[in-house]
Amino acid sequence: MSNEEKKLPAGFEDLQKWAVAWAKTTENERRIQREASTFEEIKEYYDVMLTRVDAALEYLNTKDMNTFDAPDEALFGMTLSLAEVAAPVEWYGQVRVIDGIEPDRYYVDLENRKLMAREKWEEKWT
Question: Which of 12, 54, 82, 106 could covalently link to 8 via disulfide, CB atoms 3.0 to 4.6 Å apart?
Answer without folding.
Answer: 12
